[in-house]
Specification:
Layout lengths: L5 E5 L15 E3 L2 H6 L6 E5 L15 E5 L30 E6 L6 H14 L4 E5 L10 E2 L10 H11 L6 E5 L17 H9 L4 E6 L5 H13 L4 E6 L2 E3 L12 E3 L2 H12 L5 E3 H5 L2 H9 L1
Parallel strand pairs: 1-2, 1-3, 3-4, 5-8, 5-9, 6-7, 6-8, 9-10, 10-13
Antiparallel strand pairs: 11-12
Helix pairs in contact: 3-4
């Protein structure tokens, strides 16, 4: 039996866990159980899976690693976190189908979409390369990248293209692009679409999964679809999240608020969008495998 050598403590315990994807060396443990336990040579991962910086844990064990945004901590001190750098000064053309997951803003379940699709692909024995800016990706074997402080062109384009080139042996690239596409909260610097633009310019994206919510105006969606079309992307799936923005937080200097939306409201919103677009799904259609089946039909 594989020895559990790494204990993982998540800041938000009730976020979904995809048990089938967890690498065998990891054991998820609550903060209460963590501090009650005596450690010898085991490593401990603290993952900040929230949208805001938190204070570093007061209790530090012998082999402690931090993932995510912490006050007075730089992720460069953690060698397991990847950063955008240039290895090659050429732009390569990828032969591997690429799927980009793009959100209109934060908390639109991009990461859950990525995990669910990964389960589907792995069940059918596809070799998937996963990239994410969500630190929880670590426990599933995804490449976890630090969201860049500044998105510098053209350096970021070369960096992303290098990543794609280094994973040409994969069957599928599943790229969960950090941040959001649209300005919603002026204090959220990750939601101005710069990183999305860099990905679309760095490699050929075959499919875009655009996660939105019931707060997203039709005008935003139209602009986004036209934007994807500009880069030659015609295969676009719109996924309506289970959560929507708290409009009272639009001008808040803190994290953009959100709450679970009523199911009837989601369905009504989906019906409205289907008058304009063909592939509009709810998040439950991701979990049921409907999105996966549609993707497989295209690949």
């Amino acid at each position: 039996m594989y020895k559990k050598s790494v204990y993982v403590c998540r800041y938000i315990d009730d976020n979904p866990i995809y048990t089938e994807l967890i690498l065998p060396q990891y054991e998820i443990i609550s903060s209460k159980k963590l501090f009650d336990k005596k450690f010898e040579d085991e490593s401990v991962y603290f993952i900040n899976n929230s949208n805001h910086k938190i204070r570093c844990p007061k209790t530090v064990f012998k082999n402690t690693y931090l993932f995510g945004e912490f006050i007075n901590y730089n992720q460069k001190d953690n060698k397991m976190v990847k950063f955008h750098t240039n290895k090659y000064n050429d732009i390569y053309t990828s032969k591997v189908p690429s799927i980009a997951i793009v959100g209109v803003g934060s908390n639109t379940q991009k990461f859950e979409v990525q995990c669910s699709l990964t389960q589907n692909f792995k069940s059918d024995l596809y070799n998937i390369y996963n990239l994410s800016y969500n630190p929880e990706g670590i426990i599933y074997g995804f490449d976890y990248y630090n969201f860049p402080e500044t998105v510098n062109f053209p350096d970021i384009i070369y960096s992303i293209n290098n990543i794609v080139e280094d994973h040409q042996k994969a069957d599928i690239h599943l790229l969960n692009i950090g941040g959001g596409l649209k300005y919603i909260n002026k204090y959220n610097k990750n939601c101005y679409g710069a990183l999305v633009s860099a990905y679309l310019q760095s490699t050929d994206i075959d499919i875009v999964i655009f996660t939105i919510n019931t707060s997203t105006p039709l005008k935003f969606i139209n602009e986004a679809v036209e934007y994807f079309h500009f880069f030659g992307i015609s295969n676009i799936f719109i996924v309506v999240s289970d959560y929507t923005f708290d409009e009272g937080s639009y001008d808040s200097p803190y994290a953009l608020g959100y709450y679970r939306v009523d199911n009837s409201k989601k369905i009504q919103y989906q019906k409205q969008l289907k008058k304009e677009y063909d592939n509009v799904l709810l998040f439950e259609d991701v979990l049921s495998g409907e999105l996966y089946k549609k993707i497989i039909d295209l690949l």
